[in-house]
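Project standup — Tuesday

K.O.: blocked on the structure for the chain from last sprint. Re-posting the sequence here as requested.
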Amino acid sequence: MADPRRATNIGQQESSAEGRIPPQAVDVEMAVLGAMLLDKGAIAKAIEILDDTSFYKPAHQRVFIAMSALFEHSEPVDLITLIEELRRRGELEKVGGEYYLTELTTRITTAANIEYHAHIVLEKALMRQLISASSEVTSRAFNETEDALDLLDEAEQKIFQISEQRMKKSFVSMNVAVHQTMEMLESIHGKHSGITGVPSGFTELDNYTGGFQKSDLIVVAGRPSQGKTALVLSVARNAAILHDVAVGFFSLEMSSQQLVLRLICAEARVDAHSVRTGRLPEDEWRKLSTSVGKLYKARIFIDDTPALTALEIRAKARRLKAEHNVGMIIVDYLQLMQGPKNVQSREQEISTISRSLKALAKELNIPVLALSQLNRAVEMRGDKRPVLADLRESGAIEQDADVVCFVHRPEMFGINTDENNEPTEGMAEIIIGKQRNGPTGSAKLAFIKQYARFENLTRFREAAFLPSEPVDEAPF
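H.V.: unblocked you, prediction finished:
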């Protein structure tokens, strides 16, 4: 697909044809170019924010390209060298000659406002790109031979590419970075629990991660029926009920009703199969009714739209952040997301999706948990323990993720005891195969299959010798 920034002139033509002048700020463009002639430092700042297509006036595009070329080759950038460079390119008269270039230098006396002016130019350019993209989509939509879904996909990609330009960040000086880091350290100083992120509610796991950290992409992977969805539902419940963290849950596989049924059964410790078949005893029904009240107040927001694109998830997540200050996003699961249609392979599609989820975590500054399937290679291994190479369809998932956790239930593979000769029945390992800013290892949890419920293993084993009534504040 063509770069939407290259549509600037098209946008000018279309808008002019309609008798309307596109968004532009020619005087500000002149101020930017004048500042670049005044101060070499201003050139670096302008190049960081703009490119030639950001300018509305073609003459300004040519001047910017010429100055950028001089700067790139470490040549002096002043009125004389610029005139010679444009003359060499055969473009001096096209930009208005020496008189016009001289006028640029007289328009401004200081380069102090270069960044402010450059952002004005960028904003106008983005508006023109939006006009161009929407005009193209409108024109094609009138063509009845176009496939509506293909056109929608291309429109999303165009808008996504335009929005990406606005998110570019520059360098942060060390004094600013140190100040920001110290503020973060002061905020967590004295938290003796060691939990600095969103707690999972599982002690062993949180001991490794310190909770799920802001801006991290956490991939939760496993073979089918290992309990991936049950685990992240437990995490969502613990975060929302125990810590009042708003959670956005994108379920691309199960309906919202199926998810809520799982949550209710796990919360009440009742058999999900008995509930689905209407064979729940009266005392169990009372437990279920009590649990509904607790979940009713939980700030968990479920979207069960199938085949969502990265752009759609990003737009919905932004709205959740604005309206409910969402503190964590969960996507179940990554391979069911719809990638761009113009990619050449499934691997490239998954790479694009994983990269977009990492970008979402950074943009909203919250942890994003994405479930992922594993390939069959894990089942060919003697111990059946998953490794990073088992991540399905793309090595980019491993690369983009800050944390990779594998859900591993040995009993599902006929393994009856672990390395310490402990029984594996009802036990699940959360294997941390990668953690960018922490240790790797294995956290052991209890998994109660009939409730699809995870619990801390120590508490579960202690409870085996106690009455089985649930403890309200206990995480699952």
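K.O.: great, moving the ticket to review. Residues 198 and 256 are 23 Å apart (CA to CA). Strands lie at 217-222, 247-251, 300-303, 328-332, 368-373, 403-408, 427-435, 441-448, 453-456.
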